[in-house]
Amino acid sequence: MKIKKSLFLILALLFVMASFPFAVSASVERMQDAACVRKFDAKPTVDGVISESEWGKPTRTVKDDGTLCSVISMRVGNTGKFADAPKNPDQTYDIWLRWDNDFFYMAVKTADKTHFNKYADKADSGNVWNGDALQISFDTLGAGNAFASDADKIMFALATDGTLYKHSWSCVFSNVEGKDTLLKIKNDGSYTSYEIAIPWNDLMSGDLLKKVKADSVFGLTTVVLSATDGDYDGWLSWGDGVCAPQEDSSRVGFNKIILSDLSASDTSADPAFSRYTVTFKNDDGSVISTQKVFANEAGIAPAAPKKDGYKFSKWDVSFSKITADTTVTAQFIKIYKVTFADYDGTELKAVNVGDGEKATPPKDPAREGYTFTGWDKTFDAINSDTTITAQYTKVEEANNEQTGEVITTDEATATNEAPVNNEQPVEEDTPDNTWLYIVIGVVVVAVGIGIFFGVKKKKA
């Protein structure tokens, strides 16, 4: 009995241990990856033989077990979640990314005992799922595009008849099919190896070529497709945008590849690119969204949250350059109703205005026989529900004597004409003072004569 119990416990433990990796992968959070691209000191020999002495250590080992955040495979489907166990053969592959001033280099090595691809006719370019192949999508603008499209892809394959096959769906890669691109695909009965060297001036032109220097950032997705004995059995992708579409909520877009001055022959580990968590919260502390952001990059704000009776104002801290785990909280301001009303209370316009903000009035209203003079209250800084009423003055009418036209007082002033009064002036009685003036004149003359003769007599 004890032996049976012990055996049962051992079997249960083995079952838990066997299922544990897949339990972990089922909850993996998918996100963009960032990888260092080391520099070749000397150009490699593109011969389909990938050695550590020539290429150094792999940039990434791509597995379908949830260990890489940007990996997805055919068996995952559209949910972005990993299945409990792989239904397809192991498609693990190593990938090397290198560069120099002339070329972008890539090498891929995947387990493949029986290489198969039906490509023999290059005219058959539309069907890429005919066997073992490598597809890539290269984004010359780095973060310029979130996801690849059919116009961004190129495929490399070794046809069953030994023909090396490369095909582009994009003008960006239009020269990749030419002689300048170096390509060698080789299967040794255990592995299929791809070695590729693409000239930078086939990937971009003009000012974009100035981006080819240390610390430059580009985007890359790689996919290995596999077939066994003529049957296509799946694909494994590092990054999104080449194979089956995923739901937007689970997509990660291109992986970032960052050119480095580190030598390909250097055996030290590739540098890690720090990533921080940015959490966006509502003002009540509830989480709106979280995201992982590489150091010194910007977070992406979610849609502005809503709150009854309030207006979203801003986020409380900057997230344009993230250097640590950051919490960003929504800020709101109280909304007040501002009603613009006419003299009789008729509503002309109603607007919701944030606390302390200025309301925008309607077009000046018109009222027959009156002139609009403004509003009864200021509205530059609203801090409560407010009704603002139009103000008027009555128009005074006047008669233009020349034309008989009735014009307003304002019109008369504007034409520099005095308003005409229709009433006849009242005549006032003016007293007749003529005799008074005569008497005064005689007296003045008499006095003058008297003074004249008096002076003369004294001299005599």
What do these coordinates show?
This protein is of the alpha+beta class. The protein is 14% helix and 34% strand. It contains five helices and 22 strands. Strand 14 (275-281) and strand 15 form a beta hairpin. The longest helix has 26 residues, at 434-459. It is elongated, with a radius of gyration of 46 Å.
Distance between the termini: 182 Å
Poorly predicted residue ranges: 1-27, 142-146, 398-431
Total beta strands = 22
- So what's the oligomer here? single chain
Helix/sheet category: alpha+beta
Nearest-integer average pLDDT? 76
Principal-axis shape: elongated
Order of secondary-structure elements: HEHEEEEEEEEEHEEEEEEEEEEEEHH
Task: Summarize the helices and strands and which ones pair or pack.
Layout: H1 2-26, E1 34-39, H2 52-55, E2 60-62, E3 71-73, E4 93-99, E5 103-111, E6 133-139, E7 153-158, E8 164-168, E9 182-187, E10 191-199, H3 200-203, E11 217-228, E12 231-238, E13 255-263, E14 275-281, E15 287-294, E16 310-315, E17 326-341, E18 347-354, E19 370-375, E20 386-394, E21 397-399, E22 406-408, H4 409-414, H5 434-459
Parallel strand pairs: 1-4, 1-13, 14-17, 17-20
Antiparallel strand pairs: 2-4, 3-12, 4-5, 5-10, 6-7, 6-11, 7-8, 9-10, 11-12, 11-13, 14-15, 16-17, 17-18, 19-20, 21-22
What's the quick description here?
The protein is an alpha+beta fold and 460 residues long.
Features:
single chain; 460 residues; alpha+beta; 13-stranded mixed sheet; seven-stranded mixed sheet; 5 helices; disordered N terminus
